[in-house]
Amino acid sequence: MEKLRKESRQWQPIWAGDTGYEKFEVHGHPTHHVVDLGKRLCTCQFWMLTGIPCVHACAAIARVNKWPEDFCHKLLTMESYKATYSHHINPLPGQQLWERSEANRPLAPLVKRKPGQLQTKRRKDADEGGDSYDHSLASIACRKQHEQTRNTPTRPGKLPLRRRSPPPTGSASFNPMEGASEATATRLANFLKFVPTPGFKPPRKK
Questions:
Q1: How far is C-alpha 24 from the geometric centre of its chain's CA atoms?
Q2: In the 8-state DSSP scheme, what is residue 30?
Q3: Which ranges are annotated Basic residues under compositional bias (predicted)?
């Protein structure tokens, strides 16, 4: 009741002008409601369903300087609670000491499989949160990527990399005279014959 009393401060009751000072038009957000303190009714139907005055009724009750607890249903009072549990409760023995019945033991109904694929995903309750991933963000990202690709100027593709040929092995021999004419081969042989080797010292003549 304390929570309803605090929330009722946001509503403004206006007396309808009746002689009993019981009918009010309560203004607030998002709409107005009609409260009848004599019949204990409100157009929001909360008072009628629960037996507890709603926030609109609490605002009207505060206008007439009365307590909301006095307008609750009599079944919600402490006197009714004590009257309900005033009788004694007979004691019962344990389940092992119960008398055996001669009738057949009831069995659980047979489980019938529903048509279609069997669902293995657990069904979530109403108070549980849904999927934390927002699928709308993926569509925005895809749209931005598409616009960026469309506005980007076309560039030539990269040329494929050429692999270098492996160096010749040591066993392969190179002949510089191969493919040369006889005269060219003779001149090259005479030239290489008289070219001194760097750092080579000829032996002394005895």
A1: 45
A2: S
A3: 111-123
